[in-house]
C-alpha cells in the first residue's frame, strides 16, 4: 500500500496573460520565491507521498520534466496525454497505472497552500478515510463569498450536496450557513475503489480510458484512442454520484493564483513593492511610473505589456481569447 | 532691412518625461510626421524671413545643428548661451548681433501652428507695424479658458493690459469679454527699437547683455559675464512697460505641445490609433493592451515607462522633479 501524489497538469492560465502563454502555462512560471506552482506542489506533497505520478500532456511534459529536475526530484512516473480529456479520464489513467490498493492523492499543480500543519492534518484524515474505502474530497473553509468556485454542503464528513458556482446572493447564504466549503479539486481514494465507482457510474469513460492507457507506449497515449473518451470532470463522472463520498473539512489557506488580483494580493502579503497609490509592476522591464492611477498592475514581458485595473483581473481571459483570434503569435 | 527669425531654444519640457529628458528636450523630439518642433519652426518661418538666428545654449546647440542639417537648412547664425538668462537677455543678444533696422521675428521653438494662411496674414501685419517702429506681440484668439497662459487685453491693435495666468473664473470672464488673447511668446520689432526700449526701461539687462555679447567668441558667451545679467522675461523687461507696444490679434491655431494631453489630442486629430476605451501608446516597445482603463497613455522608452491618466498630464512635471532628486540618471 503506497500513497501516490497524482499531479494533474493542464490548462494555460489565460487570465495571467502575458506572463502565461500556451507555451508557458501558469503552473510553470517561477513567480513564488523563484519556484513554480508545479514545483511547489511536488515538493509539498513529497512529504506525505511515496511516489509522484504526473499526468500531463504533449505540450507541457517537457516543462514538467525541467521543473522537477530543477527541484531535485528524479523519481517520478509520467502519463502524457495526446489531447485534453478532462479530469475523469486523467485520474482514470493514473488509477489504471497503479495497484488497486494504492492510495491516490490527486492534486492540481497550480495552487499555493498556506499553513502546512493544517494541510498535513487534513491529509492524514483523508488517508485514513481512503484506507476505509471512501472517495475523499477536500472542503476548504471559504474566506469570502467567492462566486468563482463550486461549493460542497457538508454535515461533518458527510456530503449533503455539491453546488455549482453560485451567484453572489447564494454565495453569501453559503458563508452564513457555515457548513459550505469550496470544492478544492483535490481528491484522495484507493485506485481500485475509484475505478469500481467509475465503471459503475460512468462506464463509457471507464472503458475508453482503459482502452487508451492499455495501448499507451512509455506512458504516452495515442490521439485517436484518446479522442473517443468523453471529456467530463471527475466531479460529474464520479464524485457527485457515488455514495462512497466523504469530505474532509479543511482550514488550510489555498489560492489558485488564477488572476492578477490573486497574484497582487499574494505579492503584497509577501512585501513586494507598490507605489503609494497601490500600483504594481510585475515582470521585467524598464523603470516604471504610474500617474493618476490606483491599484493598477503593469505586466511587462519582452513581447507584450498589459496594463490593467486590478479589479478587472478576471477579464484578462477575454483579452486572451480576442488575441487568440487576432494575434495568435502573442499568446502561443 | 532684413527680416530675421530669432529662434529661442531653451527648456526641457519636463511634462513630456520620459520622452523628453535633459539631454533630449521637447523641441528636439521627432514626434510630428518625423519632424521635431524645432525643425518645424525653422521651416515654417523660412517662408517669411531672410535669415535664421538661433539663440540656444551649451546643452542644446548640437541638437539644434543636427536638426537644421536634417531639415536641409545650412545658412543660419547662432548664439550659444553659457547659462539660462531668460528671454529679455536672449533677445537682447540677438538684437545686438543685427543691424538696428533689421526686423526680428522672435519665436519659441516648441510650438505647432495650424492654418498657415492665417499665420501669414498675422505676420504680414506684424512686419508692417514693426517697420513703423512698434514692438509687436501676437495675441492668439483663445479656444478655451486656459489657466496656463498669460492674456493680453486689447482694443484693436492697442494693448490695454497684460494679465498674468488667471484662475478659471477669470479666464472664463476673459473669453466672454472677447477682447482677451493668449500671449503667444512671439514678438516682432526692429532690433534698434527693441534695444532703445530695453535701455530705457530695464537698463541693467541692456548693459550686462551688451557686455556679455561684446565678449562672445564665435557666438559663444562667457559664463561669468552671463551670470551678471538679471534673469527676467522680455514681457516684464520691455513689453509690459513700453508705450510703443502693439498687438496683432490672430486666429491661427497654436499649441505648445507641452503636455501628454496636448500630444494625445493632436495625435488623435491626426488619426493616430487608440483602443476602444481611448487608451494610447506613445513610443517604441512591445505590443500593449489596456484593461479596465480609460484615456490612459503609456509612454514607452528604452529606460522608462510612464503610465498616466490623460487628465493628470500636468502632473508629469511633479514626477520629473521627484526623479530629479531620487533618480537623476532617469531624467538626464
Notes on the structure:
2 copies of one chain form a homodimer. Chain A is α/β, with parallel strands linked by helices. Helices cover 34% and strands 25% of the residues of chain A. Chain A is built from 11 helices and 15 strands. In chain A, the strands form 3 sheets. In chain A, strands 1, 2, 3, 4, 6, 7, 8, 9 and 10 form a 9-stranded mixed beta sheet that branches. In chain A, strands 12-14-15 form a 3-stranded mixed beta sheet, with no helix packed on it. The first copy, chain A, has a two-stranded antiparallel sheet with strand order 5-11. The longest helix of chain A has 16 residues, at 116-131. The radius of gyration of chain A is 20 Å and the shape is globular. The model of chain A has no long low-confidence stretch (mean pLDDT 95). The A-B interface holds A 279, 285-293, 296, 298, 300-309, 311-312, 315-316, 319, 323, 327, 330 and B 279, 285-293, 296, 298, 300-309, 311-312, 315-316, 319, 323, 327, 330. Strand 13 of chain A pairs parallel with strand 15 (304-309) of chain B, so a sheet runs across the interface.
State the share of residues found in helices of chain A, binned by percent.
Answer: 25-40%
Structural class of chain A: alpha/beta
Number of strands of chain A: 15
Please describe the biggest sheet of chain A, giving its number of strands, its sense, and whether it closes into a barrel: 9 strands, mixed
First CA to last CA of chain A: what distance? 42 Å
SS summary, helix count of chain A: 11
The percentage of residues in β strands of chain A lies in 25-35%
Multimeric organization: homodimer
